[in-house]
């Protein structure tokens, strides 16, 4: 018991310095000061110019209009200003630790032309000193834009695209006029539901069975600074029966923060096919020469200029494998076998395999489409936990000859989400009981009390020193002095932002 008590005193002196300092400051008449600066960071993904874009840029923000709040360590409001422009150049405060929060004006969850920025910074101020604090405010919402192609405009009389936030925070209706203006809407990050309601133009000599088109689709959850783009497109006039519900075909792709949604296949039904017309290929859902085609691609749609049919005994192949195929109106759908990453394929539709639906003697020319699948996604390197000694096998040190340097190193390429330390030694647990601390702590997500205690031991001033870091070195030689003369075990468990975890145990046997 005596040895444990001695170690407790040593550690208590090391970690309680901050508490004693707070008490002294609380009794002093000295004034602490801070000077502040604000900046905004982050922009939505920039997209290639299109005819739907106007000269209007993303909404600009003025940091002078940001609100500012200073909170005490306990979370109560100490000072606040509705405009940063009104904040004094130097602010006088009682000594202590504060959190300073800044936000852009306008806090609607869904709105037109309202990008939102926010940022915070923790600062400790001491008597007679002026601390300079720079707060970087980052985008917290996402942007949604609707665009149309020239082909779509020529085929559609009127339309409305309603974008709904799935967390019920609101919706925005993009009318034809709003889309023409190039306006965008801003949503707090959430998944979205998109409802498209379109009315097709009447054309001379053309019977339109489905004049009103209604389609609903979903966009997976987004993140701050994402830019979702919904692009409406119409295919060339076809010869298909549109009596069914599947009028709009949706191709959904995700590329980093740009999420285009292509709406295709608003087709018309002429009264009758022009006699003697040989089907000609108009388009393919996978173009010839395409690269990085997802291996999840299950089929390829070939669209012809007239309604088509499959000839008896037609054999369509992908390489040396025969593919199943079906026809609907002027679209031939070829079902693909399972694809392999980084592989070149050739889809072959022989001459005569596709014929006119009205005259089987009118056969389409052969079609050959080559494409290459995307490479497999590279995996993030593994998490690693190393130490000067004691990770792979126990290490023994004498209290009389402790190393002057001892480091614990963590590598997590995906970023640290959790850094849990479990204390499994009776002597160290007794010390934690004295300090009223749990035997387990997450160094990446500590509360104020934990930060005061464990932060001093591991050299951490805020959670941001650990959370999100891809590499971290802890210099803990001073911590060895607090270890009692016994077998000391610290289990370290790292969880990264991708959900991967790794545990290692640091074992140090301390002798006299």
What is this structure's SSE topology?
Elements: H1 2-15, H2 17-27, E1 32-41, E2 67-72, E3 77-81, E4 91-93, E5 96-103, E6 110-112, E7 117-125, E8 130-139, E9 142-148, H3 150-155, E10 156-165, E11 171-175, H4 176-181, E12 184-187, E13 192-200, E14 206-207, E15 212-219, E16 227-232, E17 249-252, E18 258-264, E19 269-270, E20 281-284, E21 290-293, E22 299-304, E23 308-310, E24 316-318, E25 321-323, E26 325-328, E27 331-335, E28 344-349, E29 354-356, E30 367-373, E31 384-387, E32 395-398, E33 407-411, E34 416-423, H5 426-434, E35 440-442, H6 448-458, E36 471-475, H7 477-480, E37 487-496, E38 501-511
Parallel strand pairs: 1-8, 9-16, 16-18, 21-30, 32-38
Antiparallel strand pairs: 1-4, 2-3, 2-5, 5-7, 6-12, 7-8, 9-12, 10-11, 10-13, 13-15, 14-19, 17-18, 20-22, 22-27, 23-29, 24-25, 24-28, 26-27, 28-30, 31-33, 33-36, 34-35, 34-37, 37-38
Helix pairs in contact: 1-5
The Cα radius of gyration reads 33 Å
* Structural class computed from helices and strand pairing: mainly beta
Number of strands: 38
Percent helix range: 10-25%
Question: Could you explain the architecture of this structure?
Answer:
- With 512 residues, the protein is mainly beta.
- Helices cover 12% and strands 42% of the residues.
- The protein has a 7-stranded mixed β-sheet. It has a 6-stranded mixed β-sheet with strand order 6-12-9-16-18-17. Strands 21-30-28-24-25 form a 5-stranded mixed β-sheet, with no helix packed on it.
- A hairpin with a 4-residue loop joins strand 2 (67-72) and strand 3 (77-81).
- The longest helix has 14 residues, at 2-15.
- The protein is flat and about 100 Å long.
- The model is unreliable at 1-30, 46-57 and 236-272 (pLDDT under 50).
């Amino acid at each position: 018991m005596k040895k444990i008590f001695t170690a407790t005193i040593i550690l208590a002196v090391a970690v309680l310095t901050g508490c004693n300092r707070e008490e002294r400051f609380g009794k002093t008449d000295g004034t602490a000061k801070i000077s502040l600066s604000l900046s905004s960071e982050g922009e939505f993904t920039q997209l290639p110019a299109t005819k739907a874009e106007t000269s209007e840029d993303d909404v600009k923000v003025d940091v002078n209009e940001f609100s500012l709040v200073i909170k005490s360590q306990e979370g109560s409001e100490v000072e606040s200003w509705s405009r940063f422009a009104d904040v004094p150049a130097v602010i006088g405060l009682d000594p202590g630790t504060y959190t300073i929060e800044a936000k852009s004006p306008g806090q609607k969850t869904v709105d037109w032309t309202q990008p939102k920025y926010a940022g915070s910074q923790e600062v400790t101020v001491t008597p007679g000193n002026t601390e300079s604090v720079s707060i970087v405010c980052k985008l917290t919402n996402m942007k949604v834009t609707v665009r149309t192609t020239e082909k779509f405009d020529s085929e559609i009389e009127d339309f409305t695209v309603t974008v709904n936030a799935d967390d019920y925070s609101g919706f925005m209706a993009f009318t034809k006029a709003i889309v023409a203006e190039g306006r965008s809407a801003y949503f707090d990050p959430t998944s979205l539901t998109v409802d498209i309601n379109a009315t097709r133009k009447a054309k001379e000599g053309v019977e339109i069975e489905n004049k009103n088109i209604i389609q609903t689709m979903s966009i997976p959850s987004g993140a701050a600074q994402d830019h979702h783009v919904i692009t409406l497109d119409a295919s060339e006039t076809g010869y298909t029966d549109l009596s069914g519900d599947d009028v709009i075909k949706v191709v959904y792709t995700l590329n980093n923060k740009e999420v285009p949604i292509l709406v295709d296949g608003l087709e018309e039904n002429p009264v009758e096919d022009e006699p003697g017309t040989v089907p000609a290929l108009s388009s393919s859902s996978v173009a010839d020469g395409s690269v990085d085609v997802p291996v999840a691609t299950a089929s390829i749609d070939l669209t012809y200029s007239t309604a088509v049919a499959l000839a008896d005994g037609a054999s369509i192949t992908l390489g040396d494998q025969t593919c199943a195929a079906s026809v609907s109106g002027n679209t031939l759908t070829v079902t693909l076998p399972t694809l392999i990453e980084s592989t070149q394929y050739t889809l072959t539709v022989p001459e005569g395999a596709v014929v006119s639906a009205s005259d089987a003697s009118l056969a389409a020319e052969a079609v050959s489409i080559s494409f290459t699948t995307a490479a497999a996604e590279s995996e993030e390197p593994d998490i690693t936990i190393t130490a000067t000694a004691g990770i792979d096998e126990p290490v023994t040190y004498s209290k009389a000859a402790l190393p002057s340097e001892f480091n614990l190193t963590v590598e997590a390429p995906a970023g640290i989400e959790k850094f849990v330390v479990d204390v499994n030694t009776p002597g160290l647990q007794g010390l934690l009981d004295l300090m009223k601390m749990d035997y387990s702590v997450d160094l990446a997500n500590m509360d104020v009390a934990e930060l005061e205690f464990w932060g001093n031991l591991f050299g951490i001033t805020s959670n941001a020193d650990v959370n999100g870091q891809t590499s971290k070195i802890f210099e803990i030689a001073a911590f060895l002095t607090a270890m009692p003369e016994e077998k000391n075990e610290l289990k370290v468990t790292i969880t990264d932002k991708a959900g991967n975890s790794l545990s290692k145990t640091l074992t140090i046997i301390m002798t006299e």
